[in-house]
Amino acid sequence: MTPLNCSSLMVEAVGIHKYFGDHHVLRGVDLNVRQGEVVVIVGPSGSGKSTFLRSLNHLDAPDQGSVRIDGELLGYRPGNKGMIAVSDSVLSQQRRHIGMVFQQFNLFSHMTALENVMSGPLQVLRNNKATAAKEARKQLSLVGLEDKAASYPEQLSGGQQQRVAIARALAMHPKVMLFDEPTSSLDPEMVAEVLQAMLALSRQGMTMIIVTHEIQFANKAADRILFMEDGQIVEQGSPAELIANPRNERTQKFLRLVMGRGDE
Q1: 142 belongs to a structural domain
Q2: 8-state DSSP, 55
Q3: What is the average per-residue pLDDT within 41-59?
Q4: CB-based burial label for 35 (10 Å; 0-12, 13-18, 19+)
Q5: Of 53, 112, 131, 162, which one has the fewest beta carbons inside 10 Å?
Q6: Is residue 92 classed exposed, middle or buried when 0-12, 13-18 and 19+ CB atoms within 10 A define those classes?
């Protein structure tokens, strides 16, 4: 687990609101994440966890509020009469610093694992093929798949495909990694291998924000756990504080349900 003595602020989200029609999904969410910190977000379905994660890289642009990554304002620039949305090309450049892993793997089926991981460095970073291949092999090794470089997605298990997706995000050298329930579509026996790869990343000091229902993983990997409900952060603290001794009644109820504690 990463020591929390890092002073550099990597993610700063202030007053994030998001509406889908009349539905107020996010209600003024604030979050600061320091460099090297691992933050896990838990909560019931429909609480706004995934929407908040997507707002951090403007896949779901906030209707109010701001996001800064390593001090850089994301999605907007100051204008004479307030903030002005940046162009899609500028936003794409900003997103290069943010890796994201989704529930679905989204691999290119016609590409090998190596080629999938190479795709970003080749097309976005404009690396030459030899440099991209070397980097891709390094990242596949990091997630334990160096022997699957020539395999196509259909030849890989779900857990292996998700680890390729993680390697693909890492090949872009992001400043922060976002994980949106990366194990939710996996069979139980495949969950452990993906969580192990993520745990290894946390030990290497990668800044990570993870939406997950895997409470035991959160207990091992997180520096801080946030509990969200109704579009707000209801409670947060270290794993020892939030899992072992939650203060809020809604957090207590949620943990009883997901950890099978009954009413004890």
Answers
A1: yes
A2: H
A3: 96
A4: middle
A5: 131
A6: exposed
